[in-house]
Amino acid sequence: MSQADTVFQSRSNGISAEGVRDQYADGKAAKVWEIFIGDKKSRTENYRNFLVEKLRDNGCKRILDVACGTGVDSIMLLEEGFEVVSIDASDKMLKYALKERWNRRKEATFDKWIIEEANWLTLYDDIEHLIGDGFDAVMCLGNSFAHLLDNYGDQREHIQAISNFEKCVKPGGLLLIDHRNYDDIMGTGATPAKSIYYNSSHTADIKTSVLYVASKPTLVTMDYIISTGKGDTSEFRLSYYPHNLNVFEETLRTIFKGPAAYEIYGDFKSIDKEANPAFYIHVVQKSK
Fold this sequence. Notes:
Blueprint: H1 28-37, H2 45-57, E1 62-65, H3 72-79, E2 83-88, H4 91-103, H5 108-111, E3 114-117, H6 123-126, H7 128-131, E4 135-140, H8 156-168, E5 169-180, H9 182-188, E6 204-213, E7 216-229, E8 232-240, H10 245-255, E9 261-266, E10 269-270, E11 279-285
Parallel strand pairs: 1-2, 1-4, 2-3, 4-5
Antiparallel strand pairs: 5-11, 6-7, 7-8, 9-10, 9-11
């Protein structure tokens, strides 16, 4: 049990508490999340264009999606002609990706699609047989990385996970990783329900709570209330670590040992053009 769990219910009932926490383990959140985000057609044009153009402009062909969830982004990239290896810690989320691969198995791109269950803390060892010379790009998007909590109070597991990501990137390759604007959430106590990643026809209210331990923000819980149609709603709780932008940048720069290039975007715009974005997207190029 994590430090946070001793004083606060950080996950819905039935959710795993071992290893990298599978906050979708009971299947409830996974099912509703699939309804909420929809399929690749629900991805915003800004996001699709940003991701595809960033990968193509850097000559990326072979992509590792380390938080593929239901496979929405991976499917989008497969259809854009990329070779994708997709992993997630949640078998409940992966079943949607596996179903899509089976349904489209007659298409060569989908027949070759590799989907694995893996743990970020042991990622390199878990998928070493797939890494080869490294991936052109590793992506961890959709506020996924914030699911990894700080169980020891020193962010050692965050460093370990990102170090594994770095080891999977080939020299000259990219890491694309994001997180919500937790600096603003800490200041306002509220989370924008609208996401820049998808156009959802299902309304959502997000009730936000912040847990402080020794005066330090340690855990942000978001209770999602989602309309599932015909007047029905579903509610589930997910928890996140509130990453500070400056600390996150410093961590990435340290792990990548002086990256060849480093860019930060706010809601897919240059950070100097978006004063208070909902999401920060970090694009780090590994030195050759």
